[in-house]
Amino acid sequence: MLACSGTKPKSTNPRKPIEDIPVVDSEDEDIATEIDTIYWTEIDRTIDYESAIEELIMEKKDVYNIKLLFPFEISKNDNRDINKPETKLGRMTHYYAGVLMALDQLDKEGISLNIETYDAESGRFEDKLQSCKDSDVIIGPRNSDQLSVVANFGKVNEIAVVSPWKTGSKISQDNPFFIQMKTGLKDHFYKIVEHAKDAFNNENIYIIGRKNRREDEIYIQIMQSMSAAIDGKEEDDVLNVYYIDEDSLAIGRTVFDPIFAKGQKNCFILPNWSFSTDEDFVYNVTRKLSGEKGLEDVTLYGMPILYESEKIKFELYRNLKMRVCRSSFVDRESPIVNAFRQSYFMRYKDFPSDEAFEAYDMMIFIGRNLFNYGRKFQYFLDRYESSLLQTKFEIERVYDEDQGDSFQDIQYFQNKHLYILRFENDRFVAN
Question: What local confidence, expressed as pLDDT, does residue 321 receive?
């Protein structure tokens, strides 16, 4: 894992652009906490953008150089954790293994990549960054401070920087070389609000928050603004808000009786997402809500933590008809997923974790787009939509509304695809 790896460079014959080739071999999502002003102006930038990218030189090559700045943190981890997917090093091992599986597939497709891998969180980071000057693409790192430095390094040197783990509008500004593969916090919120409003009337939707918690107040304010915008209204208090005294979840008193006394079919939204600050609250809310609802018909919408927390069990998923907003989902019954699992097991004598699927999709997506469009592939990503093993990538341009909407005003590129997972027949399925 510490060594450099890659496909063997070779010449390739001229081919048509690759669309979507399935595999033929035999959530801890990090979401930015930055809350920016919400803009709802709809602007058609298509004509100007298409005109601008037609003038771009694609800069295609026979072989592309890719540097991986991955957070192995070998100096601070126990190497015996490599085969334990529940550990940080184990998760990164599976992620790296998924990248290697993708490189094999790309090699079969005639896409030649030179890969160099660095442990971004051990040794001198500056030395590793300087070795990236000959890169066509840099992938990583995960550390937010390091990522900000790398994003601006890519901007200065006109190298595409792909962020597989972190999102945030403040990481890098005015940077059309920065690509965020994860979907942001506000996009999750909008997807939840939009989906809930399609299924329920406003008067039956309750956003849950903790009393005297500024973060919860901000989340609720954002969701209320989104709901008002969807309805075409100016006021923000469109949905019900239900604040909870967190201590009441731990003692015997009832919490949701005032709502259930009305005897209506209700929908609850739980916007909290952080494992470090929210997991106990999220679990206690689901436990209390399930225990108090009785025979009432309840649907609970929430963030990826509902799906990923080991504290939340199947009976809670079933009892609350949970709907989880998430950027990825592995359908274990899919033929191409099963083919990948078999191929992975044949190679590593282990079954792939979600990290392996995520890494495979990311690397396949980047490799194929490099082949199709060259070093400036990011400008063309909205033309390429593919269903891979565990997600779809729908990359959109993000603009600064205060500056303008021209080709030169692109702030960065970001994946906008999200699923609403629903619990059905004792398993999650994706809408």
Answer: 96
